[in-house]
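Reposting from the mailing list since nobody answered there.

I have sequence plus structure tokens for a pair of proteins and want to know whether others read the tokens the same way I do. The first protein:
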Amino acid sequence: MNKKINMYFAPYKACNLRCSYCYVPEYNKSTTKQDDLRFLESLSEFIDKVETEGYEIGSFCLHGAEPSLMSAESLARAVKMVDIHWEKTGSRNAACSHSQKAVAIQSNGIRFGSKYLGILKHELGSANRVRLGFSIDPPKAVHDKYRDNSFDRAVANYKEAIAMNFPVSILSVVTNETINYLNEFREWMQTQLRFKKKHGNPYRVKIKFASGDMALSEAEMERFAFFLLEHDLTSLVQILSPGYCLQSGNECQWFEFDIDGNCYSCNKTFDDEGIFANWRGESFDEIIKKRAELFANTAEHKDCGECQYEYLCNSGCPADRIKTGDMAGKAHECSLIRIVYDEVINRGQNIAEFYHSNI
């Protein structure tokens, strides 16, 4: 069996929004996007290298600044390239969380209007060949504050994508501003989850937590945990759901590659300091070895080894753990994890069954 690489591929450093919590540092942002042809040539070169060295692509997501800046025709060509690779390696119909592998794209969604989506669907021949991830941070007041007043456009396009039968997911960032709008947040999320249950699309609705100045305080994280439990919304949380890199701890093996040849651990390290190799100049054997060493010795809190839930979270993402104070070295979501699993036990539920039910 070929060796697998689970990855993001960043086509640009340019974006059509100026989100307050963008992970790309200012010095690394471009005011104009590079030509689509350069991206397509780089992707083709990358896939050829993967195959030549006896590897195969596992999960593939276009992510990095704003991938939808490319034309719908270019996006369709990229999807077809990866599909052909999966056909060659015999992994096109490999078991995954859905019926068939598909290229994913994580986007702010504001270019995914009916015209763009219509061209994309036509070029691909089927909406099921790509999965569209929308970054929407409800409610409108929060989203618009941090994402250039784009809520209405993003939601309208999200609904249009569903109407056109594209598999759609939602990824929302929870900030300390979200705490001021919990009722509105709850109502919006419950609406999406009801639609998911009835129609199967969106196929996924998840949240992650902001870090830095916009992160929840420990008190706010605890409040949010009890809020999720009260309204049966724990399935939203990535680190409480199976299949996410967050639970891999220091042994995480996800990658982000860009068209310039740079290798990063993921989008959380999408800066000059995060570059650890060059896929054009080094073999994937070398790159994977270097990747495995990146966080191998990243500190975990001394309490983690004694925690009964550590086997599920592995102290969280090593690039995003709490950095300072008494909780330094713990998962960013530590308080929430502890509160939720304590309550699961109090209710007489099996933790493993609870965890695997949060699809």
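The second protein, same order (residues first, tokens after):
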Amino acid sequence: MTTGRHLVHASLYDEYVERLAAKADSLAVGDPYRAEVHLGPVIDQDQLGKIHRLVESSTARGARLVAGGTHDGLFYRPTVLAGVNEDTPAYTEEVFGPVAPVRSFADDDEAVKLAAASPYGLVLGVITRDTARGLALAERVPTGIVHINDQTVNDEAVAPFGGLGASGTGARFGGEANLDAFTETRWTTVRADVAAYPF
């Protein structure tokens, strides 16, 4: 449920990219058993290769590498890609690594179109000064989870969790939703005596 795509209004785009890149550059990457770090290693060499291939193929197709894009062993630097579009691999595919592709939009309709143009539908985060407008926008994007004015990485054991499309089967897990997700409903009747019928 990491933020795989950053959609930013055109009026804020340049400042957002600059500040996100500065934040990425400031994060410590390394072994959490040996030092205090913000990011540890990716899971294995195969995943590292996938992440790096997506970053390299994205820059080869015109995305601008603003931060990161390098690694030391399994430790991949937080990476920011600007100027991405629907042909940018790191924008269209799930990276499962510390890569933030950033794309601009002009208005709410374009933001909805871009957010909904994906086979994935796990989590949507909408950051806005107008929460009612953010909620109205979120209602137009098919996802299993929505957070208004919060990050996408939220999980509570008591809250249902699940996605739509390629992000899941539509089932919800967690809290009372577990009753539906992990059980079958069965109607059972019991009588002390065999029922008597008039025919």
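Reply #1 (J.P.):
I read it the same way you do. The mean pLDDT is 87.
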